[in-house]
Write a structure and sequence with these properties.
alpha/beta; 8-stranded mixed β-sheet; 14 helices; 12 strands; binds S-adenosylmethionine
Length: 408
């Protein structure tokens, strides 16, 4: 089961039953929409979205005709744009490609890129067809592969929250063909993911919302390649059942209530030693309140392994956190607190730290760590004493003379 990178996308009209299943599941999930899941940012689907999902003529071009607006193409992208990128966009894409190749090597990009299904506006370069959003997902794949360290024949369980068209889980599935991938997203986007993943992996076993409702938590313990479900089903994931949770560029567009909802579940269903790959903006306010990665409600049982600005988008932060069974020192909260944006209170914290360090240097704290001036003088006196004693011991004549002197 592999992505056909070099061949044209299969004709999507070949599977009317899957198309009907996708639509039926979209309607079902929409009926039970849990309100807080759709933030103001995501209140963007046009009234005719269902009709558009049902129009099979739109699917061959779905990554350029507005169906993926906001999750793959930008919110302001026009419908059916030209085939070619303007020279500025092409230059940025080539720069991003060069940067990525510098990190992963050419072969990794060649093996994992994908810009054919749904025909995003892409650029031919060095024999590859490149899409900017896809290159970011290639980078995410690289980081996950490196940090997860699982053999290719492992059968892990992956959970992605807010997966866009499904590009990242598709790449991970190529790497680990036996993986069970659970995508949690909005019903509108679940429909697109169903189309993309079944096109990329013809014959894949899909678990959709209707089967989930029929089977409940048991369905999630069964055999499937992709479970494509609305986010509120996260309640049904078994404790410590996931090896990896991903959230890239999406909690930044959710309400705080929704972020809290997901963190409660992640804390429960990610197994000890499992990874959380979390890539989100330092700050974004499109939901009507500031959402900052530094405020994400990580509890104290995380080792933060990686914390740095994201590849290609320095206004976004990349975190890789490993789940622990015990509270971790330094606490994740202290790593997060140090991230921008800064507050005036941070200046106070910085000043207090600077003053504490200055006092430790001058007056000392622990004698082995920061002896301070008193500790340095004490250490110098002890060293002097020891040096003198050793010097005298090395001179027997002097020792005898001293002994005589002292006896008088
Ligand atoms: C900007 S896209 C990012 C897509 C992809 N992760 C990427 O990095 O390209 C944000 C994603 O978050 C999803 N999303 C928004 N609200 C959500 C919610 N309440 N639960 C799960 N996913 C949600 C959107 O549907 C979309 O798939």
């Amino acid at each position: 089961m592999t992505l056909e990178l070099e061949s044209p996308p299969p004709d999507v009209r070949r599977a009317p039953s899957l198309h009907d299943r996708m639509l039926a599941n979209f309607r079902l999930a929409r009926e039970s929409y849990v309100r807080h899941h759709r933030s103001r940012h995501w209140d963007l689907f046009p009234p005719d979205y269902e009709a558009r999902l049902g129009d099979e003529s739109l699917w061959p071009d779905f990554r350029r005709n507005g169906l993926t607006r906001g999750f793959g193409t930008s919110r302001g992208a026009p419908d059916t744009p030209d085939d070619t990128l303007d020279s500025r966009a092409a230059g940025k894409l080539v720069a991003a490609f060069d940067g990525l190749v510098g990190i992963t090597g050419f072969e990794f990009v060649r093996d994992y890129h994908e810009a054919r299904i749904g025909r995003p506006v892409a650029l031919e370069h060095r024999g590859l067809l490149l899409d900017r959003n896809d290159l970011r997902l290639v980078h995410d794949t690289w980081e996950i592969v490196r940090h997860l360290g699982l053999p290719a024949d492992a059968a892990p369980t992956f959970v992605e929250i807010g997966g866009g068209h499904g590009g990242l889980v598709a790449k991970l599935k190529r790497r680990w063909p036996r993986a069970r991938c659970i995508i949690l997203d909005l019903p509108e986007v679940n429909a697109v993911q169903t189309h993309y993943l079944s096109t990329a992996f013809p014959g894949a076993r899909l678990l959709l919302y209707s089967e989930f409702l029929a089977g409940g938590a048991k369905a999630l313990s069964g055999e499937f390649d992709f479970a494509i479900l609305p986010g509120w089903t996260a309640d049904q994931l078994r404790d410590e059942s996931a090896d990896l949770v991903m959230n890239t560029r999406s909690m930044q567009e959710m309400n705080r209530e929704t972020i809290g909802f997901y963190f409660d579940r992640i804390h429960r269903f990610l197994r000890p030693g499992g990874l959380f790959y979390c890539v989100n903006r330092y700050t974004k306010s499109t939901v009507g309140e500031p959402i900052r990665i530094k405020d994400f409600p990580f509890d104290d049982r995380w080792h933060i392994q990686v914390s740095r600005p994201s590849f290609d988008q320095p206004w976004i932060h990349e975190l890789i956190a490993v789940r622990s069974t015990m509270p971790v020192v330094p606490a994740p909260a202290s790593t997060l607190a140090a991230l921008p944006p800064y507050r005036l209170a941070d200046v106070g914290t910085g000043l207090a730290t600077a003053i504490r360090r200055l006092f430790a240097i001058i007056f000392g704290d622990h004698p082995n760590i920061n002896p301070g001036i008193p500790g340095t003088l004490r250490n110098a006196r002890v060293a002097l004493e020891r040096g003198l004693v050793a010097w005298v011991r090395g001179r027997p004549g002097l020792r005898a003379g001293l002994k005589k002197l002292l006896r008088r």
